[in-house]
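Example 407, ligand glycine.
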Amino acid sequence: EIRLSLVGSEMCIRDRTYTLLGVLLAGCAGSGREPLETVVDKALAGAERQTLLMAEKYSAREGRLPRTWENGEDVSSDSRWWCSGFFPGVLWYVYENGRNPRVLEYARMFTARVEREKHTTDNHDVGFMLYCSFGNGLRLTGDESYEEVLLTGARSLATRFKPEVGLIRSWDHNRDKWQYPVIIDNMMNLELLMWAADRSGDKSLRDMAVSHADKTLKHHFRPDFSSCHLVSYDTISGQPHLKQTHQGLSDSSAWSRGQAWGLYGYTCMYRLTGDARYLEQARGIAGFLINHRNMPADGIPYWDFDAPALASTPRDASAAAIMASALVELSGFVPAAEGERYMAFAEKQIRTLASPEYTAPAGENGGFILRHSTGAYPFSSEVDVPLTYADYYYLEALTRIKRRLQP
Ligand code: GLY
């Protein structure tokens, strides 16, 4: 049996689901640990309490969305910031799990705050902004007005695809340095294009997404399956003219969140296309990450895999949350023993993130669920702080695990 659905979904092969369920349940037998199901349920209940507090706090701040919380102060953004869709998405996942009508009201309210981004054509983040907010909203409510927003947004994103290069351009800044910059993060915008192609019948949107994934696979990755952050392409030849980092330690390092975006992106593109090359890429990235000598024992990466593996080096909970969500999905696409390894690693990450070290008590942490994420270390920006995308992918991972645990 194969099931396909919209955001945050996984292709579920029934026999394998049961195998994994057995492993997950057996994993805690005799270990004295709380069953994973209990960990997940408590985490979701705590997330609802915390998210309601955040929504109440921001409800009267017209047009504002939570971004982070630093030195005891709220840091917010308007919808233009690349993260604007994540808090609405957090509300949708909380609603999906608790079906609280107040949460639904807030999910609609904060989703509406992002709508104008459907016209954004000056950066690639439209997929993040709209698919996490309106995409989840559509999946959970079937609200047809959300479809129009997503289709308009996909067409806006498509304006950034240049056929001569075969990729979606990420940024327009730093034109003196980069002719046509594409960052690994951009893999996360493809799901919106794939959905829009399917919904509208416009195959060209799918072709763009596939071309982007193919060229990224060819030029962003190293033989060990790590990826560099940014590849800039020559606009005439369509070939890379520069490979650099922007948010990582160095041009040759493995910036942790970038690795997680790649893992998530290729797992998702495999789900959406069935192309075995994407599955192989995702498996390769998973192996690189899980077996990395600098991966801490608790499963939460330092902000860059090449940063010194020291207690004082900041972690990135967002990278762990993205990775956990992707591994849960990937585990459904591979032979059972391999899938069990991915699930075991995701479980470790979730148990750590759900522990008091990472999960803040209700009312603390500015209303964010998780602590200890790193936004852009080289710019001393958002280091060891809560971030909306850590919360979003954590909730997605919890939701995916919960679905898996339900017989
Ligand atoms: N997409 C930007 C980041 O991951 O920081």
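Summary: Residues 183 and 230 are 4 Å apart (CA to CA).
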